[in-house]
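#structure-requests
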Amino acid sequence: MTTMDSNVKLDAKGLACPMPIVRTKKVMKDLEAGQVLEVEATDKGSKADMKAWAESTGHQYLGTIEEGEVLKHYLRKSSGEEAVERTYPHVASNVQLEEKLRSSDVSIVVLDVREAAEFAFTHIPNAVSIPLGELDQRMDELNRADEIYVICRTGTRSDMAAHKLAANGFTGVVNVVPGMSDWRGPSEGLGS
């Protein structure tokens, strides 16, 4: 049995379409941006419904874990972060990061600043997971001399993280854009 971090759980077991979505909409409305909702449902069609609903509303469908008859859907409330301007000057594309990872003579650290549930479903192998909200407390887990490629879903949270790291004496920090939303390189996790 897999346990996953979520901020709120919704029990929609035994409900038929469209009720799981109706309940999800209600609960999602009251969540804060970036929070993760776990929806437990038994309606087999709910997986496709949740994914389609999340995409149509701008929320992020993280994935589904099946435990017997129960489908556990994970959704992340959108934060409007995609519209925020990125200002960190040192940027690399996903392709450039992939090339760095393939090059055996270069040692880099990939820092993933997405939420733990996002990381659990899919991440770059050997990436370090420190959610943006924990970065101030956990910064000392990183070496200030390392070349650090910071990644999130769209490049916005990683932009904020890169600014924080640079302000705290980290010198080789690079923001990866567009990030995991368009990552085509090697990945692992529950969704891989």
